[in-house]
Design brief:
By secondary structure, the protein is an all-alpha fold. Helices cover 65% and strands 0% of the residues. The model has no long low-confidence stretch (mean pLDDT 95).
């Protein structure tokens, strides 16, 4: 029932998650989803239970892989395909996380920032939200938001995912690219080890090279090769910062 004690052992946690997720996948696979105030199978409570078990138990679980595995276990008896079930459940879990984050004192705009990016690992999503909520009060937060916003706003139309250093002309392009490479290497282990506050601190160092880039470089150059390569560079910068959250959703 709501507010009941959570399982305390690892086997208990895993069994509870398996049981709840099996119910969720089965019901969503049959189209038996909650509507309005109607939730006869208590699916909201079961999804919330999974969130709380993962967070309190500090467990990483790949949601997509697990949902697909649960769907497969039904042996073709579900009417909705695995991709549709996962898409519906991913949104369903986001709604539960919004409530959990609110109870944890996480600002709504921070919640939306982290939920706007990858939420496949619910526990990692919670850790990102906690770190970003705290980092909002850091003196480096403004630098990080400025770097992300300038890069993200212009690079939305970028077609290439990675820039080609061979097409750099201005020194500011090369400087930003080298800063990007260096910070990628520095931030990777922090992200892997859930050190999101440290990752945000590192990423804030992108502000100076991003500013120099915009001061020196005409991004929307008439030469399409230069233009697309510069947009790809900005896209790479935005994608790196976006690994923690979509900072355009947070006001400074």
């Amino acid at each position: 029932f709501a507010g009941d004690a959570l399982p305390q052992t690892v086997p208990g946690r895993l069994l509870s998650i398996a049981d709840k997720l099996d119910n969720l996948v089965g019901c969503f696979g049959l189209g038996l989803t909650p509507t309005g105030s109607q939730d006869p199978y208590a699916l909201r409570r079961q999804a919330l239970g999974i969130c709380l078990i993962l967070i309190t138990g500090q467990l990483h679980l790949p949601l997509r892989k697990t949902v697909y595995r649960a769907h497969q276990a039904y042996g073709g008896r579900l009417k909705n395909e695995a991709a549709q079930v996962f898409a519906d459940l991913a949104e369903f879990f986001k709604q539960r996380l919004r409530g959990v984050f609110q109870e944890q004192g996480i600002a709504p705009e921070v919640t939306e920032a982290v939920l706007a990016v990858d939420t496949d690992d619910l526990y990692a999503t919670f850790l990102r939200a906690k770190a970003l909520n705290e980092f909002r009060h850091d003196r480096l937060f403004g630098d990080l938001v400025t770097a992300y916003t300038r890069a993200a706003n212009l690079s939305r139309t970028a077609t290439a995912r990675e820039p080609d250093p061979a097409h750099f002309v201005d020194p500011a392009e090369k400087d930003l690219y080298m800063a990007l490479k260096t910070l990628r290497e520095q931030v990777a282990p922090e992200l892997k080890n859930d050190n999101y506050y440290r990752a945000l601190t590192i990423l804030a160092a992108l502000r100076p090279p991003v500013d120099r880039f915009f001061d020196s470089v005409l991004v929307m150059h008439e030469n399409s090769l230069l233009r697309e390569n510069r947009l790809a560079l900005l896209r790479a910068v935005a994608d790196l910062i976006r690994s923690v959250g979509d900072l355009t959703k947070i006001s400074v």
